[in-house]
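Dear colleague,

Following up on Tuesday's group meeting, I ran the structure prediction for the three-component complex that the binding team flagged. I've pasted the input sequences exactly as they went in, so you can double-check that nothing got truncated or mislabelled along the way. The structure tokens for the whole assembly follow below. Feel free to forward this to whoever is handling the docking comparison.

Inputs:
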Amino acid sequence: MTTRANLSLPSAGRQAGPGLTSGSARERLALGPSSQLGCWWVLAPFLLTACDGPQSALSTGGADAAQLDRLFTVMLVGAVVLWLGINGLFLYATRRGGRPVSRGWAEALIIGGGIGLPVVVLTALLSYGLSIMPDQRAVGEGLRLRVTGEEFWWRVEYWPDGADAPIVAANEIRLPVGQRTEIELASTGVIHSLWLPALGGKTDMIPGRINRMSLHPTQEGLWRGQCAEFCGLSHALMALQAVAMEEGDFRDWLAREAAPAGGAGGAGAAIFAAQGCGACHAVRGTGARGAVGPDLTHLGARGSVAAGILPMTPEAIADWIRDPAAFKPGVRMPAYAHLPEDELTALADWLWSLK
Amino acid sequence: MTDQPPSPEHEFAEEQASLWRITLGPLIWALHFIACYAAAAVICAKLDASPPAIEAMRWSIGAGTLAALAGIGWAGRRSWTQWRDGNDDVFDDDDGSNEDRTQFLGHAALLLSIISFLGVIYTALPAFFETSCL
Amino acid sequence: MQPVPPEESRAQAERLRRTWENPTGWRALSIVNNSQVGVWYTMTAFAFMLAAGVLALLVRVQLAVPDNDFLSADRYNQFFTMHGSAMMFLFAVPMFEAVSILLLPSLLGARDLPFPRLSAYGYWCFLIGGVFVLGSVLFDAAPRAGWFMYPPLSVEDEGVGSDIWLLGLSFIEVASIAAAVELIVGVLKCRPPGMRVNLMPLYAWYVLVVGGMILFAFPPLIAGDLLFELQRAFDWPFFDPERGGDPLLWQHLFWIFGHPEVYIIFLPSIALTAMIVPTFARRPIVGYSWIVLSAVGTGFLSFGLWVHHMFTTGLPSMSLGFFSAASEAVVIPTGIQLFAFVATLLAGRVKMGLPMLWIAGSLAIFTAGGLTGVMVAVAPFDWQAHDTYFVVAHLHYTLFGGFVFPVIAGAYYFYPLISGRMLSERLGRWAFWLIFTGFNVSFLPMHLTGLLGMPRRVFTYPSGLGWDTLNLVSTVAAFVIAAGFAVLAWDLIRPKGRERPARRNPWNAGTLEFTPDPDEDWGARSVPYIDTRYPVWQQDRLVERIEAGRFYLADAPEMKRETLVTSVIDARPLQVLRVAGPAWITIFTAVATGAAFILPTFEWYRPALAATVVAIAGVLVWLWRTATVRPEAEMKDAGLGMRLPLYVSGPGAVGWWGMWITMLGDATAFASLVFGVFFYWTARPDFPPPGADFADAALSVAAGVLLAASWALTVGARATNRRHRSGIAMLCLLAAAVLACLGGAALVGAVHLPDLDPTTHVYPATMWVLVIWTSLHILAGVLMQLFCLAGLLTGRFTPRYDAPLWNIALFWHFLGLKVLVTVATVAGLPRLL
């Protein structure tokens, strides 16, 4: 089976967000000139693939990523020039015939090339690098997020200004465009790292510490992120989706997210209760209040099942519940293979309807 | 087999100053580095990153840097003299004589001073650019 | 220098041959010669490299296509963990030590290095540990938390994998430090007469610098391993945030080791380059002192870089900035070295050859890796690149260019020195182009794979992210690299008996390494007097005169293995050192040490304790046999009318230097534990937790006083013995041992009596670990005191033959300081915080 890392928002929902569907990364992004340049420098010898992708640090949808892309382009051009210079000189030195150069010249080369050149280049580069650090780590305004790394998924809490309780979600991060959002990073078991390359750099989530980062999306869009610090068996399968929305849309969405689960429930809800799913999962508006696993209140409104590894369809939900470890080795959730197919379908349909 | 010094103790005594100077540059760099790192760690973690404390630290790092550079400069100056003060006019040091050994150690100390000097300046740059503990 | 009559010369050669003759058949395992052990060491490291390379191929197969199920997640994690661990600990560092052990005696015109049995012991430890660690892959029990073993993941990992990593590799680290001691003392004390510091071959300078770095870099990791194993085995909460611990301490200790480690790997290959380039440029190196100083400078700066592996851990920008700055600064000395090579080539008349081809390839690859290194050293860029395939590409570029290629160049260059045959020019070119092309096609695309968002250490990935083609290309090209290594391996092992022997010094090198006859075990026929940097080029008929036995130690009339010991700066002859010959005690002790480290992996603590006792007994027997040997005469004619003592004690002796250097490393490990206390204090608000008990003040002070008295008495024993008051010296040692035992007991009591349970919080745990560390050293100190007491009682140690007394006094100087710091930290510091 080949999975495609497609990003999507469920079409059935009435989302006000960017109506993007699978594989349409190109439609959404107007790549800045700098990112194109940086990309083509890398690509020159290969010409195999494109630089933009939903998880590419070179297709920038945020202020931080754009700044770093610019930095990279500058460094890349410099590196190519220096590489050609040094190796050209070496080639010349081994191939040339004729009279050896004098000791004085040779020592001047050591001083010029070994001290003079690096001092100039490195001082400039170091100053450039240090000068953008305050921007990259600037404090966010308004909304605050808290993302907690779990094995192997993301707990996401939205703390609007002045709120005393968070709006809890999972495995998807939504951010308002045009403003910098503060993100607190925590972890319960092992070290993880939150990385959304198209928006900015990564920061680790370390048990016992609260780290912080901030992101500043500059355009609407859908991006993929992934855990970047090795966290065990399913480190490769701990992904998430980030959605950048216009501020008004974001506010509307957040209000819907804060509301309890809609819908009557029916058979699926009953099975959910009967199987004790609520011991681990919360579905606000029902009796389920578990906090061990992801909050499922608006599961159907998310882009994927199981932290970015399965598409958001009733079938995928059913497959997952039947045997989670088949998709994600080392997962904490037990298998429910003993459930009859019709009950599984009903359960999955109900979960999928939680928009 | 020329000019052998009488004993190893003598040998160390003769080069004590230059051996000391060889380590001085890197040692100053290391102390400066550790002081900067420890100061930042303590102020950011223990003093709640209070802005006046950070300001004070940045100024102290500036002053400490000047002092470190002066120290390295002094060592470098002495090494320069040692390197250049041979009896011969060539600054070769590839001969089996006491003089070439002394010149070599002098040159060595000078070059290490240069590297340490640059290292100290680089270490101080972050204190110039970063104004908070974020 | 009088000519030697031919028949006399033949008789001398025959005596030397018989003296240095090595056992054959299965008894060859008892060989301890550095030049022989060096060959085993090199071959073993190469074999481990091939094994780790196979793991890399399997990893690449798994990543060839998206959603592959060639390897399970668990298997994949074991394989990538072992690939990294083996390449670092079983190949890169040991390879440097192996090559150095192999080359150094010839390069220094010495017969052997001062402690051949230590090298042999180190080799056997390395072999046992390496087979144990690598073998775990075959039993599906290998470590799987990454070669960096970050807690909490590695601590919580079930199964024995993490223990195998911790204990197996700690064991190998001990062996590495042993080899480093041997190499440092060798360079400082076993140079040929006249080879002053300004004339040393550059390789020897690098050995000195890298040996020093090993001494300061490995101990923090050993300290970390200790904390780690205490948490895994006894639940002491060093990395558990619930009980005041912090997973970041491990990262600090690991990378304080890990970054110098990168330069420990890189500098030796620069050293090989520094030997090869002048030979092919056919002129002395340009900028000798520049290169020496760059090596020393790199050694220093490399200790200020470690946090650049932790740029994403959320430390304050200012702290990151310091490390970013040092990471950029270290480029300067590296650049100086590279430009010195270019300058040498420009100032010479270059003759290309196979080794130079590999050097050129190394430069092309290394400069690319260095330049991406400059990029990731800029902290903000690293926030994107860290833990992605960009870094995978970067590190492989530095390691292939900065290690693998120069080592292969060295293999082609130095092979004739070992076997007297040349490697094949044709196969060498094939291997080069296969590895060079395969490497670049495999790893260059990874830069882009990483920037397109592919993290490291993922066992699978979905399609649709632009990574598919890039990964497939990398995998295919990895097999091209493997083909190149197959050609190289075949060239190394193919039988060459029927080929024409190589010319002595086939490349016409200027330094001494090619002067010994590869068919003889004795090293240099006679130890030359050196007064130039490139003696073979610059000293008239040097090789001929060495061969004619016209220098020092041309004979072995007493049939004893001998080499010259010289002074540190000017290489003035000081002593004729009797070097140890073949022995089984080294293997025996290595096996017992191995058992002591390996058995706890399976929680067999009692057998492990027994093995520890046996290992210690082995060491004592070994030392007793060595220390009680007394030469038959006071002085000996070393040739050329020079008379030198056969026995030296105190600062002139190699043993004293060995102790000094070992203790420096040991003190570093202790300092790392003290750093841990400082770290917890800054990182945690509850260190010490409010209301916690303090160590007992009276007992702590008593421990300090008793141990200081023991220290003074030990030094006193040495001094009184010198003044022929052996009786008083014996009393001193006896009293010292008793006081030390009492002091040790008081120290343990100081933390045991109050309510300081190490499993409850990290504060009591750190106090306990300092006390345990110091107590173990006190135990060793007592054993040494008793050892010397036994020597005096049996009359083996006398006022004249008192080297062990000097050495243990030196040990106690270090121990005394350690005790004072321990008491101050355990009893004083928490009261102040």
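The beta strands of chain C are 562-566, 573-578, 635-637, 643-645.

Cheers,
M.
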